[in-house]
């Protein structure tokens, strides 16, 4: 048996189609229901579905009045406020192509994006860094557009370019990923294949709006079914999120693994009687974090795997839970395989986690880089660059990035596997494992960890010794103040060797 699914075809996206019109399609039947609430310790800003669709369509009208025409690219330099999704959907609604970007980017980084994308205009919060190269519309003007008469939806080919997002850059320079309007249609496979999403849900997401995980899971998907989205106000610390979930009767909570770890580490969580479960994506969820969350809240966390090029397509769900060490199963309707040099490999063999080019959620390509787009395909399969294996029951286990794999005496070693063991050692708060060149021509596996106090290195060696084959053992354990992460909370393993102290000896 080969590591490949054979799903029933997913219903095709309607034609003509508009992503924003689809997302806000429930507004007419529930105009007074709360679509979104921005919550803080002192204030709650609510917006109904009627108010949201009016703001989105008014913004679209304002952008057209500013001289934009369908197909123009619009750069978003906005903070983590309600202004972001309104501008994003407003642009999409009238056929413009929004480019959401992280508010923490520096001016030089924004300048590179402007040079690459040549946006027609930049929508900018003055508190967010930007760069010259495109006319700017400030936040006050952008907000004033919401009251304009609504622009009609720009309906068209669902295959046309809808929006552009940037990859995290964990495997090199960030790439501009172009997605079609039909990408939102594909997200229906996540509603039951991961979330268990219902119209009466109140979903809180802890993440920046430029990240597709936040925009999709935190806002677009709840709105598309008529649910309510909770947005923590900018600057909300992780330790406050539990209280917000409690006060506002949250039923679903979505975050990256790092946020869960911080919430658990920074105080006792309040009772969460309305919470059904958590959702996790962005990086592999450590089993220890999952177990600690279950002990603290009595609710499970369902994990999903995806990437900027295809969002999530493998997951665990309330209807189909998976083993703690597994990513999950391909969502219903997804055509997924574990691919080797000659195509899908046998069950339990290691290969590249791949999705078929026919998947409606798959990108159109890397903008202005057709050769890079072509290089990511092997025949009909899009290669994620992540290694995994599929069991007979369809569960897929993640073994790390292809280019994160370490070499130990000729053996390929997954950092994920080593991290899973070291993370359970007493006193270890978090851990990242990488291959380090300790002297010219000599590279060894090193575990970098955080802890309240320095740990005995011999004790760590003793703990790991019976749990991993000798060639997988870290040769050194280095305590650091905090793990290097990107703006979205992902561990940046390539930066770990920078923490290697000079003159340190490895075992």
The top-level CATH class of the domain at 404-499 is Alpha Beta
SS field, number of helical segments: 14
- Which shape, going by the Cα principal axes? globular
| End-to-end distance | 42 Å
- Give the low-confidence spans: none
Name of the CATH superfamily of the domain at 404-499: ANL, C-terminal domain
The major β-sheet equals: 9 strands, mixed
Strand content: 25-35%
How are the strands of the biggest sheet laid out side by side? 2-1-10-9-11-12-13-14-15
Helix fraction by DSSP (H/I, runs of at least 4): 25-40%
Per CATH, the architecture of the domain at 404-499 is 2-Layer Sandwich
Fold-level CATH name of the domain at 404-499: GMP Synthetase, Chain A, domain 3
Protein structure class = alpha/beta
How much is the average pLDDT? 93
Describe this structure in words.
With 507 residues, the chain is an alpha/beta fold. Strand 9 (202-206), helix 8 (212-225) and strand 10 form a beta-alpha-beta unit. Helix 2 (49-65) packs across helix 3 (83-93) and helix 9 crosses helix 10 (257-265). It is globular, with a radius of gyration of 23 Å. The protein starts with 18 loop residues before the first helix and ends in a 28-residue tail after the last strand.
Write the layout of secondary structure elements.
Elements: H1 19-23, E1 34-39, E2 44-48, H2 49-65, E3 73-77, H3 83-93, E4 97-100, H4 107-117, E5 121-124, E6 136-138, H5 139-144, E7 161-166, E8 176-180, H6 183-186, H7 188-195, E9 202-206, H8 212-225, E10 228-232, H9 238-247, E11 252-255, H10 257-265, E12 277-280, H11 287-297, E13 301-307, E14 311-315, E15 329-330, E16 336-340, E17 343-344, E18 351-356, E19 365-366, H12 370-375, E20 377-378, E21 381-390, E22 396-401, E23 406-408, E24 411-413, H13 415-422, E25 430-439, E26 442-450, H14 457-464, E27 476-479
Parallel strand pairs: 1-10, 3-4, 3-5, 5-6, 9-10, 9-11, 11-12, 12-13, 26-27
Antiparallel strand pairs: 1-2, 7-8, 8-19, 13-14, 14-15, 16-17, 16-18, 18-21, 20-21, 21-22, 23-24, 25-26
């Amino acid at each position: 048996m080969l590591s490949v699914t054979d799903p029933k075809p997913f219903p095709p996206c309607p034609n003509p189609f508009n992503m924003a019109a689809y997302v806000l399609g429930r507004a007419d039947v529930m105009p007074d229901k709360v679509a979104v609430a921005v919550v803080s310790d002192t204030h709650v800003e609510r917006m109904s579905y009627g108010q949201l669709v009016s703001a989105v369509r008014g913004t679209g009208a304002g952008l057209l009045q500013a001289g934009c025409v369908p197909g123009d690219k619009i750069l978003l330099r906005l903070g983590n406020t309600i202004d972001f999704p309104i501008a994003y959907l407003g642009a999409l609604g009238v056929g413009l192509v929004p480019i959401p970007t992280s508010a923490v980017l520096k001016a030089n980084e924004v300048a590179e994006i402007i040079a690459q994308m040549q946006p027609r205009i930049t929508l900018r919060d003055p508190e967010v860094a930007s760069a010259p190269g495109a006319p700017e519309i400030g936040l006050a003007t952008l907000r004033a557009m919401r009251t304009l008469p609504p622009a009609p939806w720009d309906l068209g080919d669902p295959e046309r370019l809808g929006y552009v997002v940037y990859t995290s850059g964990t495997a090199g320079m960030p790439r501009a990923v172009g997605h079609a309007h039909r990408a939102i249609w594909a997200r229906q496979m996540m509603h039951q294949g991961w979330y268990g999403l219902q119209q009466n849900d109140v979903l809180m997401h802890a993440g920046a709006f430029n990240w597709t995980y936040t925009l999709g899971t935190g806002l677009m998907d709840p709105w598309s079914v008529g649910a309510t989205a909770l947005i923590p106000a900018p600057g909300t610390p992780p330790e406050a999120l539990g209280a917000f979930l409690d006060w506002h009767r949250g039923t679903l909570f979505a975050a990256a693994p790092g946020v869960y770890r911080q919430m658990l580490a920074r105080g006792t969580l309040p009772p969460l009687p309305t919470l059904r479960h958590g959702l996790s994506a962005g990086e592999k969820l450590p089993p220890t974090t999952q177990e600690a969350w279950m002990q603290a809240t009595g609710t499970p966390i369902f994990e999903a795997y995806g990437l900027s090029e295809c969002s999530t397509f493998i997951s665990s769900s309330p209807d189909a839970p998976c083993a703690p060490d597994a990513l999950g199963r391909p969502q219903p309707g997804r055509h997924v395989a574990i691919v080797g040099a000659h195509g899908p490999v046998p069950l339990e063999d290691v290969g590249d986690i791949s999705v078929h080019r026919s998947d409606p959620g798959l990108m159109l390509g890397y903008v202005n880089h057709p050769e890079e787009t072509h290089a990511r395909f092997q025949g009909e399969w899009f290669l994620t660059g992540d290694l995994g294996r599929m069991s007979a029951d369809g569960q897929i286990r993640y073994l790390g990035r292809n280019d994160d794999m370490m070499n130990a005496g000729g053996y390929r070693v997954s950092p994920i596997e080593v991290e899973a063991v070291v993370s359970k050692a007493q006193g270890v708060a978090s851990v990242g494992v990488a291959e380090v060149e300790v002297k010219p021509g000599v590279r060894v596996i090193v575990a970098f960890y955080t802890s309240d106090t320095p740990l005995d290195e011999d004790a760590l060696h003793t703990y790991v010794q019976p749990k991993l084959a000798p060639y997988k053992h870290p040769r050194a354990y280095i305590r650091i103040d905090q793990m290097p992460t990107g703006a979205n909370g992902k561990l940046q393993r390539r930066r770990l060797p920078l923490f290697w102290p000079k003159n340190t000896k490895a075992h």
